[in-house]
Amino acid sequence: MNARDIILAPVITEKAVSLLPKKKYTFRVADSANKIEIAKAVEEIFGVKVAKVNTISMKGHLRRMGRNQGYTSDWKKAVVTLKPDSKTIEFFDGMF
Predict the structure, then answer these.
(1) Residue 92: inside a domain, yes or no?
(2) pLDDT band at 2, cuts 50/70/90?
(3) Is residue 71 domain-resident?
(4) Which of 32, 47, 82, 92 is the most buried (most CB within 10 A)?
């Protein structure tokens, strides 16, 4: 699996932005990716050193349009902690 197929998008929420000073970055990742693959993908794409990865399986939310209702897709989130001597990820630098 390609590194760009594992890391799908950054998650930019109030809680995710509050973790940035602690060098914790949140990403939406492929459902089949494990922690080791996620760590290698982040190191390859951004050129940083990863200390640890925490993953969370997020359930889809109920959405309605008129009388029709359904659920959004389930997805997987990863919180990546960088080593203290690692550089930051430039994409997130202006957010905190």
Answers:
(1) no
(2) very high
(3) yes
(4) 82
79 close to 20: Cβ distance less than 8 angstroms? no
Rounded Cα distance, 92 and 24, in Å: 10
> Does residue 90 fall inside a structural domain?
no
Other beta carbons within 10 angstroms of residue 28's beta carbon come to 14
Q: What's the chain's length in residues?
A: 96
What gap in Å lies between CA 65 and CA 33, rounded to an integer? 32
Give residue-wise pLDDT tens across range 16-30. Answer: 999 999 999 999 999
User: Looking at residues 60-66, what average pLDDT do you find?
Assistant: 97
Q: Total structural domains in the chain?
A: 1
CATH code for the domain in which residue 12 is found = 3.30.70.330
Q: Which two tokens stand for residue 71?
A: 């659920």
Domain that residue 37 falls in: 3-85
State the pLDDT at residue 93: 86
Name the DSSP letter for residue 31. Answer: T
